Amino acid sequence: MPGRIDSLYGCGIDVPALTAKAIKKGLISQAEAEKLDKDSALALIFKSGFSTSPIITDISGRGMGLAIVREKVEKLGGTIRVESEKDLGTTFRITLPMSLATFRGVLVEVNEAMFVIPTSYVETTVRIKQSAIKTVEGRETVTLDGNVMSLAHLDQILDVKSAARERLLLKKTDTRQVFVNLVVLSAAGSRLALKVDRVVDELQVLVKTLGRQLSRVRNIAGATILGNGRLVPVVHVPDLVIAATMVQTRQKSGETEISASGRRILVAEDSITSRTLLKTILENAGFVVTTAVDGADAFSQARTGEFDLLVSDVDMPRMSGFELTARVRADKKLSDIPVVLVTALESREDRERGIDAGADAYIVKSSFDQSNLVEVINKLI
Amino acid sequence: MSEQIKLKPADESSAILRARAAVLAKEPEQTRFKSAGFNTVVFALGGETYAFASEFVREVYPLKDYTVVPGLPGFILGIVNVRGQIVSVVDLRKFFGLPEKGLGELNKVIVLRNDRMEFGIMADLILGSRKIYDEELQSSLLTISGLRADFLRGVTTDSLIVLDADRILNDPGMLIHEEFNARPD
What we know:
- Chain A is an alpha/beta fold.
- Chain A has helices at about 15-25, 30-35, 40-45, 65-75, 155-160, 165-170, 175-180, 235-245, 270-285, 295-305, 320-330, 350-355, 370-380, and strands at about 5-10, 80-85, 90-95, 100-110, 115-120, 120-130, 135, 140-145, 145-155, 180-185, 190-195, 200-205, 215, 220-225, 230-235, 265-270, 290, 310-315, 340-345, 360-365.
- Chain B is of the alpha+beta class.
- Chain B has one domain (about 40-175): CATH 2.40.50.180.
- Chain B is built from three helices and eleven strands; from the N terminus they run αβββββαβββββαβ.
- In chain B, the strands form two sheets. Chain B has a five-stranded mixed sheet, with no helix packed on it. In chain B, strands 3-6-7-5-4 form a five-stranded mixed sheet.
């Protein structure tokens, strides 16, 4: 149960006078003012540099106080709202979470990366038709329950690189193209629809700091550890809302160009960093990449899936790249697949051993660079 | 089934053990150096061999998985879960601006710390520990180009690059603290 502080004072806020002042200050335009409902107009008092006081004294009139209050409340993961009736009084409602360490969070996925959004900021999650997204003056908007709100793409705000595979899946899977998953956020008195690939779950999370080095990271408040040990960043919603207004929502160009023909490559590599690097390089070159953590994993994946080429490390647990190559060559279904070995072994004997096993190309890790790998692959398929 | 085990007389066995001990025993290494020396953790990264003073190494941890945190500078790989504690991981080659050639193993994390800072460093291979004496260290930078001199404690004659962990930990560039100043309101 959140704690609540109510206070009652003053003689109420004169909303028309407030909006008139905001227009005069240049905070909003006349046209915008006409569209404001009472709640949104009242939210203007939290803007910094905005004061209804005609004179500046030592302690008031600069228009900073309420802006600072809002910032502090949001830092604690809370919200502040104002209600007012002219001549009757004003109520400020500050809602704070009981505990800062644990809270409920919505787990979302975007471009294969997961993020947690604190539930306290989430109004609702919805699935709407792609066609319901309208573009107004170059910005995407959606209408939910009669309210127009701007739409932002979580992957664009956070700059999570979209993988080639995702683009291809989007083209293939019709339902994902027709429907869009949105998380509706409410922070700082404004609402924002956030587009994500998938809403995975809602769960109780324990938020941790990102360690001593990462004292403050834009858009990210911390991280949580899921039951399976996986780390998931927790987004900082107030940052996100500001960022959303700055990221010019790029006009969807419909089809993203795909350079390669979407050929499928299986990458076998036991080191997580090399595996990720190879995957990124190949996906950026337009290939669809599946990864395997060792030779045995790669062999079983190759047997069950369809691949145009295999890229493999040599030194791996359970089954080495040499053995994998030999098994692939001996297999009826797989015997024609080109195999590229990427290895730390530089000697001539090793190279010959690779060719003996049936590899089509042998790239030495110490002389590895992105272009030669892609070049070699393009020659083979 | 019974097997006959012939026991040697006691004095004969102890003579054998003494002989073995004499073979295995090693004279403590006579050092040519006057300084006390310091222990280091030696590791390979991008084809070079580096060392950190052990006093700044909290532990070495296998890098099995990591999570990318959006918006971080390129020299930070991401964060890892070290027994429930979150530790950020730095790619030293990128931090130093060294040319990235080759594809390393990079599956070890050396967790460095001092009283103010803590983070992990990616390594290809942990080669062991070694005692290094100040007299062994040369400040000559002929072997390493592009590496900032103040991050070095020195280089040994066998091209082991001894890094100054304390300086690297305290470098202002390592601390990520981004306030969101661009508030539109």
